[in-house]
Specification:
Mean pLDDT: 92
Largest sheet: 7 strands, mixed
GO molecular function: ATP binding; lipoate-protein ligase activity; lipoyltransferase activity
Structural class: alpha+beta
CATH architecture of the largest domain: 2-Layer Sandwich
Helix content: 25-40%
EC number: 6.3.1.20
Order of helices and strands: EHEEHHEEEHEEEEHHHHHHEEEHHHH
Shape: globular
Keywords: ATP-binding, Coiled coil, Ligase, Nucleotide-binding, Nucleotidyltransferase, Transferase
Organism: Candidatus Hepatoplasma crinochetorum Av
CATH class of the largest domain: Alpha Beta
Strand order of the largest sheet: 1-2-6-10-9-8-7
Pathway: Protein modification; protein lipoylation via exogenous pathway; protein N(6)-(lipoyl)lysine from lipoate: step 1/2; Protein modification; protein lipoylation via exogenous pathway; protein N(6)-(lipoyl)lysine from lipoate: step 2/2
Low-confidence stretches: 165-175
């Protein structure tokens, strides 16, 4: 497997490169990058629910949406991101534990830390999360990517992220800071982040470096610009909703339902959350708009959704109906 080591700390570019790779390069690749301070949200999340937008603007922390599901993460230059981009492996989506094994083995056998897979999609050391994992499929290819929290400054994370506290309480901890840890703190022999990245690449990649051409870099820059423009537009064009329902569901994640009614019909509708989906759940909102708001109509709509699990992994239809009905 060849590797790519990003030469920039721009998170818009680095995440755009993932999209370019999975859609355009017909080979397996291991991609590594480090971002300057930013919050990266999952593809289904409402940024207003996940982070303090004013604090981000005041402290020059960028907001970026990735193509995979899952939750919001804060990153600075002490975090290392990795991506396995795998050809013809779309069928393996949600095999989090299986695909995390090379990273777990690297941490255990090369750095001698007690790493293990835990929870829904985490790698942990002594119960503390040091890696969050997500997946995305496109063109029958799979991206399996995650963070490696090497030496991140979490001193202000409570001002940056605004998590769902039902989820935190359900995990038996009182704050984000108590739930996450730094790999650096667990190392018996200290190394730099650059040394860590070198060891990681040497352990995973067995072929030479893949280098983008100038033309490829221009294409990635276009995707990066679009990503930045979309998140800016989302923050500026904000709907106000009469009805909201939010709930954390163990094994699924957090889900938020927002809608407005006019003459007992749904006039606006959105679904957000920290959950995994193969398809984009934003595509479903139009099937609710203009429909009568009652139990039978909503149930009929939900039960007609094809490939339901590809929109809401590990959620049943009746639960979605009850959420929309504010139960």
């Amino acid at each position: 497997m060849k590797y790519i080591l990003s030469k920039t700390n721009n998170p818009y570019f680095n995440l755009a490169a993932e999209e370019y790779i999975i859609n355009n390069l017909n080979e397996d690749l291991f991609y590594v990058y480090v971002n300057k301070p930013c919050v990266i949200i999952g593809k289904n999340q409402d940024p207003m629910n996940e982070t303090n937008i004013k604090y981000l603007k005041d402290h020059n922390i960028l907001l970026v949406r990735r193509v995979s599901g899952g939750g919001a993460v804060y990153q600075d230059l002490g975090n290392v991101n990795y991506s396995f981009v795998l050809k013809d492996k779309a069928k393996d989506i949600y095999k989090f534990e299986e695909y995390s094994k090379p990273i777990v083995d690297f941490l255990k056998n090369k750095l001698y830390v007690n790493a293990e897979f835990g929870g829904r999609n985490d790698i942990q050391i002594e119960g503390k999360k040091i890696s969050g994992i997500a997946q995305f499929v496109s063109n029958n290819n799979l991206i399996f990517h995650g963070t490696l929290i090497f030496n991140v400054d979490f001193s202000n994370v409570s001002k940056i992220l605004t998590p769902n506290y039902d989820k935190i309480i359900s995990k038996g901890v009182k704050s984000i800071q108590k739930r996450v840890g730094n790999i650096y703190s667990e190392l018996k022999e200290k190394i730099t982040k650059e040394q860590f990245i070198g060891l990681l690449i040497d352990n995973i990649a067995n072929e030479k470096e893949y280098k983008f051409s100038e033309e490829q870099l221009k294409e990635i820059a276009k995707i990066a610009k679009e990503k930045e423009e979309k998140i800016t537009f989302l923050l500026e064009k904000r709907n106000q909703y009469q009805f909201k329902k939010s709930e954390y569901i163990s094994g699924f994640g957090t889900i938020q339902i927002y809608f407005n009614l006019k003459n007992q019909e749904i006039s606006q509708f959105e679904i957000f959350g920290e959950y995994f989906s193969k398809y984009n759940t934003d595509d479903l909102k139009d099937i609710f708009i203009g429909k009568k708001y009652d139990q039978n109509t909503i149930k009929d709509i939900v039960y007609k959704i094809k490939d339901f699990e590809n929109y809401f992994y590990n959620l049943n239809r009746d639960k979605l109906v009850s959420l929309i009905m504010l139960k």
